[in-house]
Amino acid sequence: MKTIIHATLAIGCLLTAAAGSSLAQTQASELSATLQQSQQAGKFTFVLFYRDNAPQTQQMLETVNQTLAARSQQVTIATANVASPAGQEMAEKFRVSRAPMPMTVAVAPNGAVTGLFSRQVTKAGLDAAIVPPVMMECMKQLQDQKLVFVCLTRSEQASVPTGVRTMQLDPLFKDRIALVGLNVEDAAETKLMQQLKVNAEQVQGPYAALIAPPGVLVGHFNSASTADQIAAAIHKAGKCCEDPNCKHAASAEASQSTPARR
């Protein structure tokens, strides 16, 4: 199965604001407050981790500042020196303490990590890390290790296929499922639609695309898809469970394609 969404596993996040082009150190409590304020304001936070003030660090910070300067209403820029206790604590929370430095991490308002840039960063990469709301929610749920059913609609209210509703009652899956609505007419989510390999014309009635961590497209399911068919597709994708005698194994072997054809 192809990974369609770059999604890092869920990480706790603590950030601090950077003043101009300088590299400042801040205590962990201040970093936490900065992140909380940024999230409450609905902003993305970009934190640059560094070990020393080397030219590579200065170049990365310059690129981050220049690229995001015009997005001050949408973005907070932060720095953290991993050689300090506060910076090391934050790096460990992001699970990047052993990563090559410098590194910039992009964090969405909902806590999802939307970008990781090691040693160098580009304007295109930074811009791409500022993702629209539905993609942001999908990434957060994937990082929380959820099976994400993106329920597609042409209106404000998304319909959930009956098979997916039944899956929510299955003890094996009920705590692992997240439902996210997506209006196929929303131009801001065009990239997500492309990644889900969905054509708006396919959406006639209840329709859902399923993605599993870290961003694997499992299949498309419509009103005719049964819970057993969906479970079989999950098993076939290797996202069901580790039980070799899983009850869904036989169905997966018998299935040669996803229930709802694209």
Which labels suit this protein?
262 residues; alpha/beta; Glutaredoxin; 2 domains; four-stranded mixed sheet; 8 strands; 20% strand; disordered C terminus; signal; Thioredoxin domain-containing protein
Describe the structure.
This protein has 262 residues and is α/β, with parallel strands linked by helices. The chain has two domains: 28-128, Glutaredoxin; 133-254, Glutaredoxin. The chain contains nine helices and eight strands. The strands form two sheets. The protein has a four-stranded mixed beta sheet with strand order 2-1-3-4, sandwiched between helices. A four-stranded mixed beta sheet has the order 6-5-7-8, with helices on both faces.
CATH topology of the largest domain: Glutaredoxin
Q: What is the approximate shape? A: elongated
The CATH architecture assignment of the largest domain turns out to be: 3-Layer(aba) Sandwich
How many DSSP E strands?
8
InterPro entries: Thioredoxin-like_sf
Keywords: Signal
Protein name: Thioredoxin domain-containing protein
Signal peptide: 1-24
Topology (elements, then pairings):
Layout: H1 28-40, E1 44-50, H2 55-68, E2 75-81, H3 85-94, E3 103-107, E4 113-118, H4 123-128, H5 133-143, E5 147-153, H6 162-167, E6 177-183, H7 190-195, E7 207-212, E8 216-222, H8 227-236, H9 249-254
Parallel strand pairs: 1-2, 5-6
Antiparallel strand pairs: 1-3, 3-4, 5-7, 7-8
Structure, briefly:
The protein has 262 residues and is of the alpha/beta class.
